[in-house]
Amino acid sequence: MCAATITEQQQQRVTVWRPLWFALAVTALVTALRMTGTVDSDVAWQLWIAQRMHAGADLYRDIIETNPPLWFWMAAPVERASALLHVQPEPVLAVLIGAVVGLSLAATDRLIRHIREKHRALFLGYAALVLAAVPWMHLGQREQIVLIATLPYAALINARRAGAAVPASLALAIGLGAALGFALKQYFLVVPVGLELWLLAARRKNWRAVRPETVAIVAVGLVYSALILVFERDFLTTIVPLIRLAYGVFGAPSLRYMFGPFAILGLLMLAVVAAQARLISGRRAPLAEVLLVCAVAFAAVYFVQFKGWPYHALPLIGFSSLALAALLAEVETPSPILRISGPVLLAWPLFLSAEEQLNPALPSPDLKAALVGLKPGDTVGFLTTETAVPWSVTLQGRYRYASRYNGYWMMRAVLRNELAGGRDPRLTKLGRAIVTQTVSDFGCTPPRRIFVSRPRPGEDGFDILPFFQRDPRFGELLSHYRILSRTSLETYELATPLPRPAGPCRDGI
Which of 107, 298, 304, 503 could form a disulfide with 315 if both were Cys (CB 3.0 to 4.6 A apart)? Predict the structure, then answer.
C-alpha cells in the first residue's frame, strides 16, 4: 500500500513536469541551431565593448556610448567565457540566452498550473519559440532580455491577483530577474507600473505594495544607481549631456516609419486578443489578461522610443502572441473564428523572423565588396551616421576598430544646427571636438581602410565627409590614403604611414 502510494506520487510529479520538459527541449533545439551565425549591430558593439573593457578601456571615456552600463556589464561574463574557451563570443551568448530562457519557462510553469497539461505544454513550447526563436536576428538585445524576464513576472502578478500562495524564494528570484530586465532601459519601467496598477485595481484593499518581488525591484534599482554613481560617473557627466544635446534628431523620420511589419503584426494580434474581452472577463483566461496588459505596456514603450527599429517591437509582438496563445490554452471553447485564425496568427511572428534572417539589410553588397582583401586583425575606420554599418561587419570580421564612437549619429544634429545659423554654440563645439577626437583616434590606431557613407553622384542625402575635411588636420590624415572605390561607400586604403601621434592614446584599444 505504501509502495503503491509512493509510485503514484512519483507518477504525478512526472506528469506535472512533462510540459516543462517539452518546452525545454524546444529551447535546447533553438539554442543549438542559433549557435551558428552572428549577432546584430548593437550586440556586436556590446560584445566589442566588453572585450575592450577587459583590455583596459574606460567605458564613457575611451569609448563613447549612450546606453547605461548594465547591458555592457552583462556582456562581461560572455566575453570572459569566450576568451577562456578560445571560441567566438556569439555561440557563448546563444548558450547563455538559452539557459535564461529555460529558467524563465521553468518559473512560469510553476505559476500556471491552472492550465491543463496538454494545453500548458503547447503554451510553454510556443513561449520557448517566442523567447528564443522570434528574436533570432537580435540575439542578446535588451528587448529580448526584458521579454524573457517579464514573462514569469507577469505570471507571478497573475498569481497575486488570484490570491495564490507563492513561495517567497520563487517570487524573489523572479523579481530579481525582472528587475535586471526593466533596468536596461528607463522606458521599460512602464511595464511593472502598468502591471502593479492592474493588480491594484483587482485587489483593492487586499493589495500589498511590499512583496518579495517589489522589494527585489527596488533593491536592484537602488544598487544599480549607486554603482553608476561610484563606478560610472562619466555616464552622468559626459553621456547624459550629450544625449540631451544631440540624440533627439536620431529617430524615426515620420510616424509612418513606426509601422513596420513587426509593429503592425504585434498591434494586430493585440487587437485580436482585446476583442475577445468576453472570453477574458470573469477570470476565464487570467493569464491571457495579464499578458495583454504587458502587450499594451510594451506598445506604449515602442511608440515612446519613436525609433521604428524592428527589434524595438519584439516585446510588443512577443506578448501579443503569448496573450493569444494563452487565450487558446485557457478557454475551454474558443470561437470557431479564434480556433482557425489563432494558429495562423501565432505562426506569423516566426515567418517574419525567418524572412528577416534570410534577407538582411546589412552588410550591403557595397560594404561586402569594400571589405575584400581585409584580414582578421586589420584596423578599420568608418565615417557614417548609421551605427549599423560598421557593426554589421567589425566584430564578425574580427577587425580592429579605430574610433571611440560606434557611429557619428550626433553629426545630424551638428549640421542641422549649422543650417539654422549655428544658434546653439554647444553643437558647434561638439562638431569640432568630434573631428579632433577622430583625428586622434585614427592617428593612434591607423585604419588600413576608411569607409565613408556618402550619397552617390546626383543623389540627395546626408554627406558627412565635407564636414570632416574642413579641418586641415583631418585633410592631412586623409592625404595618406588612396581612394579604392566609390559606391554608396567611399573606400580609402592606407598608402603611406601616418606620423606618430603627438598626444596620448586611449587605453585598451
Answer: 298
Q: Among positive and negative, which fits the CA dihedral 149, 154, 160, 166? A: negative
Q: Give one word for 246, left, alpha or beta, with left for phi > 0 and alpha for psi -120 to 50.
A: alpha
Distances (CA, A) of 320 to 124, 255, 273, 316: 15, 21, 8, 6
Please tell me the predicted confidence (pLDDT) of residue 282: 64
Choose among 463, 456, 387, 388: nearest CA to 418: 463
Please determine, for residue 243, whether its predicted confidence score (pLDDT) is greater than 60: yes
pLDDT higher than threshold 90 for residue 4 = no
Please provide the distance, in angstroms rounded to a whole number, between the alpha carbons at the two ends of the chain: 71
Report residue 9's pLDDT band, with 50, 70 and 90 as the boundaries: low
The strand pairing partners of 485, in sequence order, are 491
- Using DSSP's 3-state secondary structure scheme, residue 350 falls into helix
pLDDT band at 302 (very low <50, low <70, confident <90, very high): very high
DSSP string, 124-192: HHHHHHHHHTTTGGGTT-HHHHHHHHHHHHHHHHHHHHHT----HHHHHHHHHHHHHHHTT-GGGGHHH
CA distance 27 to 18: 14
What is each CA distance from 114 to 161, 267, 327, in whole angstroms?
Answer: 14, 28, 13
Which residues lie closer than 8 Å to 314 by C-beta, 6 or more apart? 134, 135, 138, 141, 143, 144, 147, 262
Angle, vertex CA 394, rays to CA 392 and CA 395, nearest 5: 95
Per cent of the chain over pLDDT 70 is: 95
Per-residue pLDDT, averaged over 1-15, amounts to 53
Q: What is the mean pLDDT of residues 305-323?
A: 96
Q: pTM for the full model?
A: 0.94
Q: Which position has the grid cell 561586402?
A: 368
Q: Which of 113, 189, 131 is nearest to 322 (CA)?
A: 131
Distance CA 340, CA 46 (A): 42
How deeply is 86 buried, as exposed, middle or buried, from its count of CB atoms within 10 A (0-12, 13-18, 19+)?
exposed
Average pLDDT, integer, range 117-134: 97
Q: Give the CA angle between residues 352, 355, 359 to the nearest 5°.
A: 140
Domain ranges in the chain? 251-351, 365-494
User: Which amino acid is present at 446?
Assistant: P
User: Which residue type does 429 have?
Assistant: K
7 CB-contact burial (10 Å; exposed 0-12 / middle 13-18 / buried 19+)? exposed
